[in-house]
Amino acid sequence: AGYPAKTPSTQHLQVTTMADLSYDYDDEDLPDPSLKNILEQDTLQWIFVGGKGGVGKTTTSCCLGTQLAKHNKKTLIVSTDPAHNLSDAFCQKIGREPTPIQGFTNLSAMEIDATEDLDKMQRSMEDATGAGPDEDDSTGIQSLMTELTNSIPGIDEAMSFSELMKQVQNLDYDVVVFDTAPTGHTLRLLSFPTILEKAFGKLMDLKDRFGGLIGQAAGLFGGGSPDQVQEALLGRLEETRAIINKVNTAFQDPALTTFVCVCIPEFLSIYETERLVQELSKFGIDSHNIVVNQVLFPEKDAEELGEWYDSNKDDMQKEAREICGKMMARKRMQDKYIGQCFDLYGDDFHVILMPLL
Fold first, then answer.
1. By three-state DSSP, how is residue 72 classified?
2. Which of 24, 81, 119, 134 is flagged as catalytic?
3. What backbone phi and psi angles, to 5 degrees, belong to 13?
4. pLDDT tens by residue, 3-15
5. Could you give the C-alpha distances from 63 to 57, 58, 99, 259, in angstroms and in order?
6. 173 and 43 in contact (C-beta within 8 Å)?
7. Structure confidence by residue, pLDDT tens digits, 20-48
8. Is 93 exposed, middle or buried (0-12, 13-18, 19+ CB in 10 A)?
9. What are φ and ψ of residue 63, in 5° steps?
10. How many other CB atoms are found less than 10 A from the CB of residue 96?
11. For the residues 147-170, what does the mean pLDDT come to?
């Protein structure tokens, strides 16, 4: 399992048809069409589930989490999507702290909020410098944090991400499943280690040259003594950097981390999946499973169903013929893009077809 040997273009996605394909869905040479490989890989610690919005990422994450729990692994499902759905999926209230899932003894879930993580970091720095939340001194920390986040785009989200990872690493779980936001947000999340590494390199260089000025500038704002402010800020940045480096190393280790791509058999979703696979390859993150959701009759192809429809449509009422006709049109469209998915990934990926329920 690994990345595709070639890089298909958008044009390739547009022109490929079922007639062009050399793959057979039942070919014994293809990787096993299931996620059993994840359950059987005992070394895995981080599993990301991502894809375009509305393709079934939360459903896939929850199913994976429950199966991992059934395999006697203490499992945590974490939602990083601002529009959380884990509470709806499990029909129980799930908050910012790990919440045990009813019916399981080794499965928990939590929904995170990046804004609250950043506020929590700011409060801890206020405590470290002796600036209480009700004192005017706290404005110095706030001003310094605001200036920092404005000068380095994305560092606020990245630092809150490091807070999340620190919290998760301190918890006692065998495996963590991340139910991620839609593709663009997820790629941004995965780029945080790179963003922070570059940003911290610049900050540490500035610290070496102008370290004393940082504390003095904060002192002018009223943020406690200059030495305390400088030590708190640079200490927190160094701590964040260490966490991110550790996480980045783990993310790039296929024995510890994998990414499950979820899509539906439509052009935009397949195209976005290809973009995601290419970006994951650039980040050095393993991906060898693709779940294709909402498939009409995955055990049959459009040709078989078409033969049945042609032989029975004369006996159907008008409304039934119209419904079946629309279903057949959608089935042909789905088969076209399922074929493209196998053409692109069939040799290297486990491609799992999930029926529309």
1. coil
2. 81
3. -65, -35
4. 333 333 433 343 3
5. 10, 9, 17, 15
6. no
7. 433 444 555 667 788 999 999 999 999 99
8. exposed
9. -65, -45
10. 13
11. 65
